[in-house]
Design brief:
The chain contains 7 helices and 15 strands.
């Protein structure tokens, strides 16, 4: 019997079509790499990218030269541009502003074919440190209300280059999906004086049936109302509201969990295309600042990572209703992922 499940964080319904009961090998969409050609991200091609913003380098190597381990550059074809002012205006019932923001690429490794799932934990730690570094820096710009860190892997997930990389986009508006999460979190806190995410995490740990990985510091689980088959939610077990404030100790522990999630997904689902993204708090120092807008955000929001394998396509029903149809129950997905031999 299909089930309708409600997500209290996003306030949306998902249809769990359990009668379809798709196993890991049953999905028709297979991961295809982007079309290969010249790769500007490979070591030795530093002159083919815009000048680097930041890098992790070996001793003695200079900027925009070989010898780097992680490198950050502006996107050559940015969605938003860092120069200028917003220049907000109204056109009748419509609103308009300049496309001001930032669009950066974190080139995760000099190795063109390195799968992040196969990288050493120490290298994944370097990548996560760079996430934090760029987030902290971009938050200093009061024009930016939200900074999104996201990774597209495989052509089906929107990757245009196969060289391992993550993107960062700083936006002058807070994305609608984040507004929903922030609103749900604030309402829950106002009613119960507890973090909604902490309540969900605690309940999931007590249940155990949707847990994929659990350590002392982090948990990875398949959400109760998963939108997509084998979707995974990763979060600190204790309350932390801002990814920008993650400690070095927590970065090390996150690198271990992230590697295990990526490796289990790779082995269980035959190296699927995927998206993963980090949801953290908006820029609370952005201007103009609304009075009392995020006054409880330090206690009500909980940063987290969403990992979504691209195994199915969104079709007309999803676009028309906002509902998602998931053919694999999250309890079954968690079991498949846990049972993988690493």
């Amino acid at each position: 019997m299909p089930e309708l499940r409600y997500d209290p964080i996003q306030k949306r319904w998902t249809i769990i079509a359990s009668e379809q009961g798709r196993r890991p090998d049953d999905f028709p969409i297979k991961n295809e790499p982007p079309r290969e050609g010249f790769c500007p991200f490979c070591e030795g091609n530093e002159g083919k990218t815009p000048p680097e913003i930041a890098a992790v380098r070996a001793n003695g190597s200079g900027p925009n030269q070989p010898g780097w381990q992680v490198r950050v550059v502006p996107n050559k074809f940015p969605a938003l541009r860092i120069e200028g002012n917003m220049d907000r205006k109204g056109i009748g019932v419509y609103d308009l502003m300049n496309g001001v923001g930032a669009h950066e690429v974190i080139i995760e490794t000099p190795q063109h074919n390195l799968n992040l799932a196969d990288a050493r934990v120490e290298h994944i730690e370097q990548v996560i440190r760079m996430y934090r570094q760029r987030l902290v820096d971009l938050l200093r710009d009061r024009r930016f209300k939200y900074i999104l860190i996201f990774r597209n892997y495989g052509a089906a997930a929107g990757a245009l280059l196969s060289h391992p990389h993550t993107q960062i986009i700083a936006s002058p508006v807070t994305p609608l999906i984040l507004v929903r999460e922030l609103t749900s979190a604030k309402q829950h806190y106002m009613q119960k004086e507890r973090c909604l995410f902490c309540d969900v995490i605690q309940q999931e740990i007590e249940s155990g049936e949707r847990i994929v990985v659990a350590t002392e510091e982090f948990v990875a689980l398949t959400p109760f109302a998963s939108r997509f088959p084998f979707e995974i939610f990763i979060a600190p077990r204790s309350h932390h509201h801002s990814f920008a404030e993650i400690s070095d100790h927590m970065i090390r522990r996150l690198a271990v969990v992230l590697k295990e999630v990526l490796l289990r997904s790779k082995k269980c689902l035959n190296d699927p295309a995927y998206n993963f993204l980090i949801h953290t708090i908006p820029n609370v120092k952005a201007s103009p600042r609304r009075r009392n807008y995020w006054d409880t955000i330090e206690v009500d929001f909980h940063w987290h990572i969403e990992f979504m394998p691209r195994l199915t396509r969104i079709a007309g029903f999803e676009w028309a209703t906002g509902f998602y149809i998931n053919p694999t129950a999250p309890e079954e997905a968690a079991k498949y992922l846990r049972d993988v031999a690493l």
